[in-house]
Amino acid sequence: MVYVSQKQNQGRVDDSDFTALLDPALIRSARLIYTTYYEVHPGLIQRPLGVAINRFTHRGKLIFSGKPVLLPQECFVPFSQIESEMY
Fold this sequence. Notes:
Elements: H1 24-40, E1 50-54, E2 60-63, E3 74-78, H2 79-84
Antiparallel strand pairs: 1-2, 1-3
């Protein structure tokens, strides 16, 4: 379960907004989604806020602005978690 704080951060997603520990498999899937998107769109200059991903199917999409509105089976993987293990 993902817990979301009530903070308003002017459309930006703060990592502290999502306090649940994420399954490493979800982080790997989110990283693969980001990598695939980046390979298809190499001119991408806007950094995503993260990936909204389904916990069961591991399908997801990049989020570029605002706080994501998640379905019950989805969670949000902040870009900082995706990025931390990429380098």
